Amino acid sequence: MLRLACCLLMAALAQAATPVFQTSFEKPGNGWAVVRGSAAPDSAVLHEGHKSLRLERDTVSQDACVRLAPVALSIGKRYELSGWVRTENLEVRDLDRSPIAVGAALTMASMPFDVHSTSLGGTQPWTLLTLRFVASRAQDQILLTVGNGGSFRGKAWFGGVRLEEVDPSGEWPARDAVQTFGPAYRYPAAGWVYLHIEGQPYERGFQHGHLMAREIPEYIERCAAVLGSKEHWDDYRTTANALFLRGFDREILEEMRGIAEGASDAGARWQGRRIDLLDIVVANTTVEMGELASAVSATPTGLEGLSFDAPPYADHKHDSVLDHCSAFAATGPATRDGKMVIGHVTWWPLTLAEQTNVLLDIKPASGHRMLIQSYPGGIESGTDWYQNDAGMVLTETTIDQTPFNPQGTPVAFRARMAVQYGSNIDEVVRYLGTRNNGLYQVLPFSRVTFGAVWRRL
């Protein structure tokens, strides 16, 4: 009886350990393809008696990447990706950008650029690397990478790569906490909402609205409170229509309309009606509306240069309190390890700030993949933290208010364009400075090779 029980237990364990996916590198191109760099089966370096896959640089790419065959997954289930890695004189050179370069690692094609297994460098024997994740789509692919985000020299070998479903008990996010809608998904983590959307403008906006349908009316109500009162919401819509709506291009307008209609189709309502494009525009320009009074005060009227003497009974006291955001950036000799440090302090009403807990992961059909600290219904940050897969990090520090330019475009639009399409510091500055409407006047801080550069726009 004991022997039978042991046999049954061993059979159960063997069945539980059956991988969802397992690959072999015995033959070139057998279920894998080179994306960057060079890769070849290596009979001189074996892992458990099988050929390994050797990754090196080529004459074109700075890093190396191999994509394995597609694998079917169950959305919401937890998996563990594992593989054995060996390195020889593997040195990674960072490009002084974020995300920083990593050594030999494993990841999934669907994951953001800064999510991967532990990386390996130097000269190391066979080492097991693992990565646990919750499936966000029904089909995905394993990536083997070396020097991702930078460049490298040396070699890395991969073997025994497999994917297994794991017991979700005690793990987070739990399966029931992950909500999906097409290729989009969201889940809570430590008070944050991680929201991934992708695709064409209207489609990704619709995903956003659908998955954030409960929170979007809550945030709109907060915007109304900051601007004055929800009883005056029609006035705010008129202001947004007159001053800001046409400052967004077609791409972002389509995304915002998608947010409104995705939320409304999922049941969201504001003041007893469906949410529409103008509601989302107000939400994304609430901060700039709050700057209008000080901006028009700084806008020339024609009386500039004239001298007026105040009467002797005038009170010359005035309010000098300034509530400004602040930021700092340092690289090179200004930091202990020579790498980049960027920080930001947000001065913003708690009414809005409480819901800026959305980590917005956008993978657009065109432009760079972005990670943005945002809010329900946001196409921009609001708290001014942006990062893209080209290594650009964008934040700001507030400066004295400048004149308002009615022909300019909202900073919400310019900042979004800068992070979506800016591949270097000059492009980021160009997007931020083109048709500046003067509201929410800031100094942007962005990553650059030898330090932080900021320019008054």
Write a structural description.
The chain is α+β, with helices and mostly antiparallel strands and 457 residues long. It folds into three domains: 147 residues, Galactose-binding domain-like (Jelly Rolls, Sandwich); 91 residues; 121 residues, no CATH class. Helix content is 24%, strand content 32%. The strands form six sheets. Strands 13-14-15-20-21-22-23-24 form an eight-stranded mixed sheet, with helices on one face. Strands 1, 3, 4, 7, 9 and 12 form a six-stranded antiparallel sheet that branches. Strands 2-5-11-8 form a four-stranded antiparallel sheet, with no helix packed on it. A hairpin with a 2-residue loop joins strand 13 and strand 14. Helix 5 packs across helix 6 and helix 8 runs antiparallel to helix 9. The longest helix is centred in the middle third of the chain and has 21 residues. It is globular. The N terminus and C terminus are likely disordered.
- How many domain units? 3
CATH superfamily membership of the largest domain: Galactose-binding domain-like
Mean pLDDT: 84
* Helical residue percent band: 10-25%
Strand order of the largest sheet: 13-14-15-20-21-22-23-24
Poorly predicted regions: 1-17, 318-322, 447-457
Gyration radius from CA atoms, angstroms: 26 Å
**Helical/strand content category:** alpha+beta
Number of helices: 9
Proportion of residues in extended strands: 25-35%
- Assign an overall shape: globular
How far apart the termini lie comes to 81 Å
The number of distinct β-strands equals 24
In the CATH hierarchy, the architecture of the largest domain is Sandwich
Class of the largest domain in CATH? Answer: Mainly Beta
- Specify the biggest β-sheet: 8 strands, mixed
